[in-house]
């Protein structure tokens, strides 16, 4: 007869990384990134027509047109600095020439007709035809930009209220404020990436910001949710141990989500670069940077800020 052995389960130690112990390093990294993002603004920011006001005219043509030469010709005719982009027209063998320039007065029909006639004369062999023309008043651009800022600010307030209610067991107000600080950090760094790379601050920038807000706050909420659950399982644990364990447990999920998005955006960026679709590049490339920064802030910045807040509150 075999004797049964009573095997005592060994105490399983929860693996964790010391995130809060490196909080000063994380704060320094974040301050440097934010400072650089602010400083690059003084190097010049390319703000799109929809925010500054001006005129956008799109032509179609066949053959090849030198963008540099065309820009010089148009600037001479329009008496203003212009931005020119070329691209392919889908489902057509023709190409497009997009011309945009800042204009507080607008571009009258007479000036547009004169510009079109001049281009058709200069590039007579390219069969130039006008596709679209849009005038954006400077006041409309400012109003649109202000509305975008208000929307982001309103979203921040709603997020604080939501997190404060959902995570009231772990001092919801502080966790909500720390999450929004991390989000503002992500927005500023993403803005800096736009400027450094040379992309225009346009509607794509707003789309990128809103996308990053959604992904980053989702990752932060996952960490907070883990902290709340572990507080029940580890009632006597030190706050640093609680946060380190919870953040470590959330790492895998956050990494998988972010890597999936980043890899997808890298593939899209490569294809867009090959085909010269700059409008997609100005979305996909900043998304890659924003996702990486958002993952960092969700795991390293927001939890450490919350611990610092709670520690100072207990000492007060």
In brief:
This protein has 9 helices and 4 strands.
Provide an overview of this structure.
With 316 residues, the chain is an alpha+beta fold. It has two domains: 20-44 and 140-315, Up-down Bundle (Multidrug efflux transporter AcrB transmembrane fold), CATH 1.20.1640; 54-136, Alpha-Beta Plaits (2-Layer Sandwich), CATH 3.30.70. The protein is 66% helix and 10% strand. The chain has nine helices and four strands. Helix 1 (23-39) crosses helix 6 and helix 7 (203-233) runs antiparallel to helix 8 (239-275).
Q: Write out the strand line-up for the largest beta sheet, numbering strands in chain order.
A: 2-3-1-4
CATH class wording of the largest domain = Mainly Alpha
- Do you know the CATH topology of the largest domain? Multidrug efflux transporter AcrB transmembrane fold
- Structural class assignment: alpha+beta
Number of domains: 2
Determine the N-to-C terminus distance. Answer: 67 Å
CATH architecture of the largest domain: Up-down Bundle
Characteristic key phrases:
316 residues; alpha+beta; Multidrug efflux transporter AcrB transmembrane fold; Alpha-Beta Plaits; 2 domains; 4-stranded antiparallel sheet; 9 helices; 4 strands; elongated; disordered N terminus
